[in-house]
Design goal:
binds glutamic acid, Probable Glutaminase Ybgj, Chain: A, domain 2, alpha+beta, about 10% strand, 2 domains, Beta-lactamase
């Protein structure tokens, strides 16, 4: 039985998870992320009906990081069609950490297992139409403006530069894939576009709304115009279920049970069909890279609303 989620209830849960957040660790392999304050917590729900409820630091901006992989996948599918995209990237969970290189060498033919791990996401960004990295990023941003009806959304230059300068592992993944013909663009160009894409900034309200469009099968929430064709929105949500929470996606399916995508900034975007978008933010992460406070909040929310899709 679904029960209403009030602001007071969300605020109450935020108080509960504050101490839990202390046990996590803010990502620091991207130097600009290391300065995030682990006490900055936020939660937002945007129902497909248009109803919204937010709690915590609802206007605080954070970068999407891997949450952007869902949007980039939707755009790459629109640009290229399923056949071309899935000739470059697979559909199976990897069971390995998001930046792992190991399966690239052992999979035959050598292509990333799915678009939610870094190798797959880099291959997807390479497929987005645009003659220059900035053109690709401009198209991703316009797509997000369209999805959120909000043209103020941009990327954080400082975070993008910080990642670009320290992305040695992602460079290695790109060189490996370039050798095997998985990516065609220049490695530095792919990284330039990818790091800017990951640095797109939003607050919890904007992220919950974005999740709601996927929950609404890709239709605009107000006009019901199809922004993402229904079958492509379905593909994106399926990847969120099978690979969205890194190598904790199985446990997440059991404990929480909704399509979700996590990013190392501490953001998680969820999309529950017919219900809406749920977004949580808390920068302290567990060892798999998921927001500690965010996971707990989602556990409370999904239990209260009886939202598991299983
Ligand atoms: N930009 C980050 C990276 O590629 C995203 C990782 C993540 O959020 O999982 O390392």
């Amino acid at each position: 039985m679904e029960r209403e989620m009030s602001k007071e209830l969300l605020e109450d849960w935020l108080l509960h998870v504050k101490d839990i957040a202390e046990i996590g660790k803010v990502a620091d392999y991207i130097p600009a992320l290391a300065s995030q304050d682990p006490r900055h917590l936020a939660v937002g729900i945007h129902r497909v009906s248009g109803q919204t409820v937010y709690a915590g630091k609802a206007d605080h901006l954070f970068t999407l990081q891997s949450v952007s992989k869902v949007i980039a996948l939707a755009l790459a599918l629109l640009d290229n069609g399923e056949e071309r995209v899935f000739s470059h990237v697979g559909m199976e969970p990897s069971g390995d950490p998001f930046h792992s290189i190991v399966k690239l060498e052992t999979s035959k033919p050598s292509k990333p297992l799915n678009p939610m791990i870094n190798a797959g996401a880099l291959a997807v960004t390479d497929l987005i139409q645009g003659n220059t990295p900035d053109e690709k990023v401009g198209r991703i941003l316009s797509f997000i403006h369209d999805l959120t009806s909000d043209k103020t959304i941009h990327f954080n230059q400082q975070v993008a530069e910080s990642e670009f300068q320290s992305a040695f592992l992602n460079r290695s993944l790109c060189y490996f894939m370039k050798q095997h013909g998985v990516i065609n663009g220049e490695v530095e160009d792919v990284l330039d576009a990818y790091t800017k894409q990951c640095s797109i900034e939003m607050n919890i309200k904007q992220l919950a709304r974005l999740g709601a469009v996927f929950a609404n099968d890709g239709y605009d929430l107000e006009t019901l115009r199809p922004i993402i064709p229904r079958n492509l929105a379905r593909i994106c949500k399926s990847f969120m279920v099978t690979c969205g929470m890194y190598d904790a996606s199985g446990e997440f399916a059991i404990k929480i049970g909704i399509p979700a995508k996590s990013g190392v900034s501490g953001a998680i975007m969820c999309s529950v069909k017919h219900y809406g978008g749920i977004a949580v933010f808390g920068p302290a992460l567990d060892e798999k890279g998921n927001s500690v406070a965010g996971l707990k909040l989602l556990e409370y929310i999904t239990k209260q609303g009886d939202l598991s899709i299983y």
